[in-house]
Amino acid sequence: MNDASQRLDHMIEDVRRGRMTRREFVGRSTALGLSAGLAGALFTKAAHAEPKKGGTLRAGLAGGESTNTLDPALAASVVPQVGNAQWGEQLVDMTPEGQVEMRIAEEVTSSPDSKVWTFKIRQGVEFSNGKTVTAEDVMATYKRHTDENAQSGALGIVKGISEMKAEGDKLEVTLEFPSADLPYLLTDYHLIIQPGGGYDDPTAGIGAGPYLLESFEPGVRYAYKKNPNYFDPNTGHADEIEILSINDNTARTAALQAGQVHMINRVDPKIVELLKGVSGVQVRRAVGRGHYVFIMHVDKAPFDNNDLRMALKYGINRQEMVDKVLGGLGSRGNDFPINAAYPLFDDSIEQREYDAAKAKEYYDKSGHDGSPIILRSAPGAFPGAVDAANLFAASANAAGIPLQIQLEPDDGYWTNVWNVEPFCASYWGGRPTQDQMYSTAYLSTAEWNDTKFKNAKFDELLMAARAELDQDKRKGMYSEMAHIVRDEGGLILPMFNEFVAGVSDAVGGWIDDPNAEMMNYRAPSKCWLA
Amino acid sequence: MHLIVRLLVQRVALGLLLLLAVSAVIFLGVEALPGDTAQAILGQSATPQALANLREKLGLNEPPLTRYFAWLGGILTGDLGKALTNGADIAQSIGQRLGNTLFLAGCAAAIAVPLAIILGLIAARYAGRWPDKVISGITLSTVSLPEFVAAYFVIYLLTQLIPVFQPVAMVFPGMGFWAKLHAVALPVIVLVLVVLAHMMRMTRAAILNVMQSAYIETAELKGLSPMAVVWRHAFPNAIAPVVSVVMLNLAYLVVGVVVVEVVFGYNALGQYLVDHVTKRDLPVVQAVGLIFAAVYIFLNMAADIIGILANPRLRHPK
């Protein structure tokens, strides 16, 4: 065998294990003399290599507490999110490319005004208790999430539903206001379909997912066996899976290195470079929609002055923060909460850079009296929030802006500081669509409008875009909204963070999914042991 | 014998009284926190109506004294209520985790206590000579190391360099005894390193103290070997101080090892308490607090009683 073909074999193996992207593969194999077309075909063949069945796949994850429950409505941290995604199944899901994927639904149609949506329920899907999944179950599930007592994290999504009708295998959903995004919204991880809606016992752990829950100890461990009746042969490869809750960074990394687990989440940015050098383990990064922010209340002095807001926006060094706070594992923000991980993102909007001269110019124009501008931050506002605030103060001070940091305790930060004080550090996890992100925090009437941003033109565009089915027009509207938030809003967005996972070489099928951590929580059932 | 029985009864009664006082302090402490259980449950979404409803449902409108006795009554009948955060039965959750805590503490104690005493005896026998210096030097350096540093060190040594153990020490029902032992090996090693020095030094000091006595000289003049003198004549009279230090360390092994639990992902009581404190799950905090207090009081009481029993003057009253 000659050298080139040996290298090609290695590359095919890498692709088969999900270690190489299509672009990398085609680039390198054309360098070896292959035609681009042939390289592409080879990639497709390798990437769709038959997954291996069997074995016990273990994941060690940060983000689990002994206060966790199996009730999908209450899932708020990664371990329960991943844990529920194994025993549960949703009506629809998101693909890594940002498309809606049919799961329990087989087909989705809408009325021309996108006000009435019809979901056709897949036939023959069974819950783990043997009951067949019906349109009534789906309806009851959504109904339970609208009940205030259920305290569902998806309440904001389902409360827009004004009426539901289940007929045979069809579920008809009528919305209060038109929304072209309904299928996207229903991909929310809380909305796992439960028998009878989960009214009897929301914590029963009975669902239609790829695995059957065998044992659950909150904050410790989930154990599963494969669901032999699962409808999708492309998901659920290992015979058994285990999810261990390991919150300590060092223990989690050591467990991966020692082979006790096959995949871990939240690799500490400080050790990414070190972990890359460890044999048998690879670091996988996916740019998500989550972002770290500094938020100003635009209705309170001195932040009610747009020139001052612009001064602060020019006074922050975004690249420095990505490098120093995220260790390079992220990308720069542009003062609106959307990035390329969202559908209909306009990548032509100019990137705002640190510009001390411009910052000074705006600051002088604002006529601020020179009194200190207080930015509140706490270690728990986001990882590295105190460092980020100090970097911000340093770069702003260099431009002559008297920015001062006030440290707050983690305890009570989200009650006493966030949404209360006019300028503080915070974070957002991102949402599946632009509409949802903007409606959650930038619409005048939004409950979590944490910049107190009220702009009639913006609200009007948001409503119009929501009902617009022409994607080009919609994209234009979102671009206009992004400009409004970027140039007039109270949001300073220095960086989007990445999901950084550590994956053993024994794992096949890993995909860098921007939707959420751990391949949109589904890594244990979508990956296999090669 | 009468004197001993009376002393024992006195100690047990005192312990129970102390526990009652602690329960009152815990209850008062939780009462004194701003906000109440209903507010803790509802958080930011609390509306006045929802608060009123929930207070009614949880019986929070009763006077504090009534609630204290209801809580106390619940504890005596094994009903600790339900966790606010996930509705799990507290007694059941604690039962399993307490079992894990005791398993880890038991394994560590089974190694650390005999080892510390034997090393202490040897150090006392060779006081001031090289075996004493080596033993003291090593145990004092391991106790000076913070627990988490020792933990990371043994993780590196025994899972990466020489991969014989697992870094994550989770145990769960269905695991065999030996599998459990293998799983907890690393935290046990760390805990042994942490508690060894204190007990060893105490044994050494107590024995050296006794060695000054005239009757030791008599024993030596009888021609007994030095080790026999230490073991037969010095150690029995040094038991009381040694036992009290041993008990103190046992108490630490039960209530104070949360850092080690977190580092090794060990699912025991400490981590459970910390999680619920973070979420302000007050019924759980109250219950675990009381259990920790009970462990402390019980072990100290045991040390007292053993001290009394080891005192020949009390054992053989004239």
From TrEMBL, chain A:
Pfam families: SBP_bac_5. Its main location: periplasm. CDD domains: PBP2_NikA_DppA_OppA_like_17 (cd08503). It is found in: Periplasm. Residues 100-449 form the Solute-binding protein family domain. Belongs to the bacterial solute-binding protein 5 family. This is ABC transporter substrate-binding protein.
From TrEMBL, chain B:
It is found in: Cell membrane. SUPFAM superfamilies: MetI-like. It is a multi-pass membrane protein. It comes from the Bacteria. The chain crosses the membrane at residues 12-30, 102-122, 134-157, 177-197, 242-264, 284-310. Keywords: Cell membrane, Membrane, Transmembrane, Transmembrane helix, Transport. CDD domains: TM_PBP2 (cd06261). Residues 98-303 form the ABC transmembrane type-1 domain. The keyword Transmembrane applies. Belongs to the binding-protein-dependent transport system permease family. This is ABC transporter permease.
